[in-house]
Amino acid sequence: MPLIVRDHTWTQNLSTVYISVPLKAVKTANVHIICTDDYLKVSFPPFLFEVFLFASINEEKSEARIGNGAAVFTLQKRRDEMWEQLCTNIDKEKQKQIREQAVLKVQEKAVEKSKTKATRIQQEKKYALETMMKLESEERERIQKRKDEVCARATAELDFWRETQRKTAKGNENQIKEQRTSTHDNKPVPQKIKHANTSPADTALVKTDNTITGQMRSKQKTKDLPAPRSAGCIQISFTPRVFPTALRESRVPEEEEWLKKQAEARRAIDTDLAELDDLTEDERNPDWLKDKGDKLFMAGNFLAAVNAYNLAIKLNRKMPALFSNRAACHLKLRNLHKAIEDSSQALELLTPAVSANASARLKAHVRRGTAFCQLQLYVEGLQDYQKALEMDPHNAALRADTEQIRELIQGSTPRSKDEN
Fold first, then answer.
1. What residue ranges do the domains of the chain occupy?
2. Subcellular localization, per the record (predicted)?
3. In sequence order, what DSSP letters do the residues of 30-81 get, joined into one string?
């Protein structure tokens, strides 16, 4: 049954009503508000504030602000008048009807808000798609323009190269003709006479001329040919499947993910074993490490005790006492979130709940509840203390602490809870 909040305050003027509701150290995310023209409800478990307004308000113009441990409502009146009181006196049947109407109205608003959000998301997706298509079109045009520019430049360079080659070939031909002309001018003996009375010097000269002409033509052909392409070799390797399952029945992504997780687990185990190579025989015993951590805790060396428990947990993660004792060390060191994690881990290992592990579960609940209270999460801390009290109902100190936390939640005690 929820706890009704009665320590609220309210003021008014002709047009506005101001209501302040204390939130009792509750997180803002856990506050739920329902407001209609004649009804206001604020729910923050385990507390509830409900009021049936004296007159109608303008819900659309009203607003709520949550912060600094209070919810402040600014309600705009429908008519400018002074209210005699904040609440109106109506029977339970009428109250039930107003509650149902308020819930229906909130649900309708939620559906309408969901539809509006879906429409807005659809419009945003449409706009994003149009923008993306426009950007892609501009990118294609830019690439095509770049291609055209490169093609035009390459064509111009090719034409220039061809013209240069043509001029070079023409110059070589003219040079060959000039060499032949000069040779014939110096030796005017016709080629036909070579078979009749040709001297050895004339024969050598003709052979030299032919050799020079052939070399120049060969050099010209070599310049016309493009450079040979570079050769390469692509290595392809195929990895056989690990699972001997028919392809139509296999699930390749799940198998690959499983193999990946197995490899990571093996690497983690290898790393942990490598770290444990330098330990002595006693230091490889988790029970010995637990006793050492307990002695360090009793001596007040909490950080060294945490190190001992850490090493023991690496060797054996199935001992709940290691996590529970490390949680006690973290409480002393003010590592409250780590204390909550270790206590929760210890409670997970202490399953099923039997009488043999009741004492260990009680310690874990008390330590986690203490960490919650030191974080000012009194509701969560009260739940752990209540569970511990169920296991040991005759513990006077535990009962007194539970009552103190309950008083803190109800706002009757100003100081904060700090359990050791």
1. 3-89, 284-410
2. Cell projection, Neuron projection; Dynein axonemal particle; Nucleus
3. G-EEEE-SSEEEEEETTEEEEEEBSS-EEEEEEEEEEETTEEEEEEEESSS-
Write out pLDDT tens, residues 298-330: 999 999 999 999 999 988 889 999 999 999 999
The top-level CATH class assigned to 3-89 is mainly beta
Q: Which residues pair with 10 in a beta bridge?
A: 19
- Helix-helix angle 336-349:320-332, to 10 degrees: 160
User: Are the C-beta atoms of residues 368 and 320 closer than 8 Å to each other?
Assistant: no
The rounded distance, in Å, linking the Cα atoms of 263 and 364 is 35
Q: What contacts 310, CB < 8 A, 6 or more positions away?
A: 326
CATH classification of 284-410, choosing from 1.25.40.10, 3.90.1300.10, 3.30.365.10, 3.10.290.10?
A: 1.25.40.10
Question: Letter for the amino acid at 372?
Answer: F
- Give burial (CB, 10 Å; 0-12/13-18/19+) of 401: buried
Q: What pLDDT sits at residue 216?
A: 61
With 0-12 / 13-18 / 19 or more C-beta atoms within 10 angstroms meaning exposed / middle / buried, residue 346 is buried
Does the pTM surpass 0.85? The reply is no
The position carrying tokens 């509006």 is 116
- The residues, any chain, with a CB within 8 Å of residue 418's CB and separated by 6 or more, are 373, 374
